[in-house]
Amino acid sequence: MRPFPFRAAFSSAAVFIALIFSGISGIAGCAAGDGTGGAEFATSVSVAPFSTQPVVATDACDALAAGFDAAPKTMRTGCYWYWLNDNISVASVTADLRAMKRAGINRAFIAHVGDVGRAGNVKMFSAQWRECLRAALKTAGELDIEIGLFNCPGWSQSGGPWHTADTSMRRLATVERRVAGPRLFSETLTPAQRGFRDVKVLAFPARHAEQDNLLDAVPADKKPAFPLRLTGGASVVEFSLPQAKPARSLMIFPDGKLYARCEFQARGSAGGEYKTLASFLMRRVDNRAIVGFDPQGPIVVNFPETTAADFRLVLRDTAGGSKIKKIVLSRVPVPERYVEKTLGKLFRKMSQNDFPRWNEYMWDAQSTDTAFCAQPAQVRDISKHLAADGTLTWQVPAGDWVILRTGMVPTGVTNAPVSPEGRGLEVDKMSRKHIAFHFDAYIKKILDFIPKNERKTLTTIVADSYETGGQNFTDGMLEKFQKRYGYDATPFLPAFAGYVIGSPDQTDRFLWDVRRFVADEIANEYVGGLTDAANKHGLKTWLEPYGHWGFPGDFLSYGAKADMVGGEFWAEDDHTYENRAAASCAHIYGKKKVSAESFTSVGHPFSYSPAALKSVGDKAFCEGINDTVLHVCISQPDEMRAPGLDAWFGVEFNRKNTWFAHLDLFTDYLKRCNFLLQQGTHVADIAYYIGEDAPKQTGICEPAPPAGFDYDYINSDVILNRLRVGADGELLLPDGKSYRVLVLPPQDTMRPEVLRKIIALARDGATILGTPPVRSPSLKNYPNADKEVEKLTQEFFGKGGLLTPPAALSATGSPRNFCAALGLVPDFQWDDPKTPLLYTHRKLTGNAAAITNGATGGGNVCDIYFVSNRSDKTVRVAPAFRVAGAEPPVAKGIVPESVRVAPEFRVSGARPELWDAVTGERRPAPAFARNTVAGTTTVPLELPPNGSIFVVFVRK
Questions:
Q1: In terms of DSSP bridges, do strands 936-938 and 275-284 run parallel, antiparallel, or are they unpaired?
Q2: pLDDT exceeds 70 at position 164
Q3: What is the pLDDT of residue 546?
Q4: Fewer beta carbons below 10 Å: N end or C end of the chain?
Q5: Could you report the per-residue pLDDT of 607-655, keeping only the tens digit for each?
Q6: What are phi and psi of 853, to 5 degrees?
Q7: How far apart are CA 937 and CA 930, in angstroms?
Q8: 187-218 burial: b if 16+ Cβ within 10 Å, else e
């Protein structure tokens, strides 16, 4: 066996007997295998060598051991296979595939990536390109390598040159006029944007005086010069009105880059103290449409009516080069953050480890004051007065009026990164009809020109992480919206242009409904539509249920509609939420595999080897990943160049890399891990509800899960439609998954239908922890929905203290309190909490069929724990090369320092075995102790720096 290219293997037999007398000796009632007291202790005075023979002679366990010894054909180690900048040939793609086969890569996702480096000669859609694609799929079939095709050119998202304005992502735009009546108005309302498709023409009362900018009254010699250039770091911008005026809102218009943490303050009298009216973040650092179709829109905040003459902006952490074009201080309320709330500006990463927090799109409740606000009944639909050429002829009633011509226009986002031949508008994500058109325009044409017998291993249609920004309108949206929410959205359309209708609170609720509608439509129409189109042709969909640039959806419902979901982790180990997002989605929707774009990297070409990657991969396994897709293999068109064609992203998993000839040792390890981690059902005790707000890209764990208890995120759809309570109070899902505690998020809003279901779960015996809601976030059935939420909360939420089922809901406490009340002990714990360990746990039931085809049912076969040592207490040994027939050299004078632990597992009545995925060896644990009272088993382990082991508890 060749030496494996890892930094460290198990330096000894992975078990040390010293702990038999030190770490375990304190267990009460310890005896030698008598099984009569509180603990049962079994030991062996000798450490037997590993055996590759099955340890237990049961059919199911034999099947499990056989799959570990030699991964079945169904176990696929994948890769992203990028055809870069038209640099491909028939010879190169077939050579790539044969090299993949030798390296143990038996799944490849083909993406045509452009705008990266030197351009090649094989243009997309050309005869040569078709020949390369056909040869690749035919060769993959011969080699039994599964192929996935990205559903469009580039890696994000679903676009191409076949799309027009009417099939692309769209937003609501407006043409505005202010008129005074009575008079006959006749004018052409010409939109500024191309592709404008009318929705409604509306008119509503306006009050010019109250909408004036109060800062216009500031004397010229005291007014800041615009554009206002801000000083980096901290600064203050002051405004003094000639006399005190009441104010309710502030709008700040960026002039290019703008970033600062702000406090808007006022003082009631000269020489008095300034008081903060609003604290907020100004974040306008990217003008690309992938972070929203209005990325330079104004920052808008409301505050209680304040009468003052002196105002100021206190700025901190200001980015250098920040500029402000205009500031508007008004007596009239404006929909707070309406640019963000209409999805015009979405989250944009500021650094590699930056990500949208759980509350990124959550804001404070707004005022119910109706002053200065047009009421819904006052908004008139005057669409019938608009001629085909855009001329509006309308008899204006007495008073001041705002006229809005509203219509859909493209957001302008295109698929990327891609060569010019493959670039085009992104498809409308809220229209199943347009998704089907997109599929037929690209994938169906590929299926048509490649004979079925030459694409027999083409199985998957791929969509990567979402990176195309938001949209907020589509065909037939008003009708569908009314059916779903029970009210007409037409009177509230002015909110898209920054007008309050009804009250700030009502407008805020309407925009909440819009964002929830968009998230649901993207999940159902886009992902669901793409999956339906693929399934009709015998294909499955694979996608990542999140987005690093402008994701407008809900990560759990978005991923639910795909056949397979994937997370993501980087070689730098700085991504913190994607794997848990994908794993939770898979767990709550009954998806067996949780893939991951694995070992992505930026700016570190040829810096990594499998030795440096194993540890971060092990961490991903503990986060729920069990299906590896290596990132990235770039097709190599030039046989004479080394180390080959490269890009600014990814680790080089391609045949020109110096260690590629030994990659099979690494893929063997990955296959063994993936095989075991795909067995049975993931074990977690806590389900954290993510709430109903959208967009949503992660959840919140508050309070944090106690050590030794795993968790998933869960959403409203699953709570309403898939969750029930078992006989012992467990929260059960149809696929065998269960939880013991449901934790509600720290917010005070919830729709009545969700609250009713949660109360029903509590009545049936479930344990619920969380903040009691006080109102609905939606305008649906307003205000009656609020009254129902208030009534239900008062009736069913506890008044403090720990309440155990079926006593209703508790508003206080912590998951640890609940776990203790339920008699739960941690699923995994160890004797030294300072030792950094991670774990994951799978429970396998059934028979041999459960291992071979994923069947469920039958008795408990075994519990599978994967344990990873996260410490590296000595100098890291990471050889950059390998020498055949020798172990990787260790730097002189360096002795790896092992972490010695005796973890305790929440398993009883089963014998532990140690399965080493690095070597493929298995053996019984030579020492373990059973605590029959607590139902736990302690197994002494020795793990070297960044080492890992499977502890498999087999039931005879």
A1: unpaired
A2: yes
A3: 94
A4: N
A5: 999 999 999 999 999 999 999 999 999 999 988 788 888 888 999 999 9
A6: -135, 10
A7: 4
A8: eebebeeebbeebbbbbbebeeeebbebbebb
Pick 90 or 903 by higher pLDDT.
Answer: 90
Asked if residue 43 has pLDDT above 50, the reply is: no
Record the tokens describing residue 20, joined without a space: 């038999």
DSSP, res 486: S
State both tokens at 153: 């050119």
Amino acid letter, 585: C
The closest of 442, 877, 896, 847 to 679, measured between CA atoms, is 847
Nearest to 252 by CA among 327, 152, 302: 327
Measured CA to CA, the distance from residue 300 to residue 500 in angstroms comes to 12
**DSSP state string for 884-895:** TTSPPP--TT--
| Farthest CA pair distance, the chain | 102
CA of 120: how far to CAs of 115, 128, 150, 154, in Å?
Answer: 11, 12, 20, 16
Which of 154, 86, 117 shows the shortest CA–CA distance to 415?
154
Quick one: which of 710, 402, 734 has its CA closest to 590?
734
- Pick the residue with more confidence: 90 or 644? 90
| Residue 614 tokens, joined | 């194993």
Return the H-helix or E-strand segment holding 324.
Answer: strand 323-330
**Residue 37 token pair:** 């007291």
- Least Cα distance to 506 among 330, 657, 377, 391 occurs for 377
Give the C-alpha separation, 544 to 921, whole Å.
Answer: 34
User: Cα(453)–Cα(144) distance, rounded to whole angstroms?
Assistant: 13
Are residues 310 and 238 in contact, defined by beta-carbon separation less than 8 angstroms?
Answer: yes
Q: What is the DSSP letter of 305?
A: E
Half-sphere CA count of 80, side-chain side, radius 13 A: 28
Region class of 96: left (phi > 0), else alpha (psi between -120 and 50), else beta: alpha
Quick one: how far is CA 921 from the chain centroid?
36
What does the pLDDT average to over 594-617? 93
Residue 346 and residue 695 in contact, taking contact as beta carbons nearer than 8 Å: yes
DSSP string, 353-416: T----TTTT--PPPP---TT-B-GGG-EE-GGGB-TTSEEEEEEEEEEEEEEEEEEEE---B-B
Cα-flanking dihedrals φ and ψ of residue 580, to 5°?
-65, -35
8 A C-beta contact, residue 165 and residue 428? no
Q: If you count them, how many residues does the chain have?
A: 956
CB atoms closer than 10 angstroms to residue 221: 5
Stretch among 685-689, 871-875, 880-884 having the lowest mean pLDDT = 880-884
Backbone φ, ψ for residue 386 (5° rounding): -95, 125
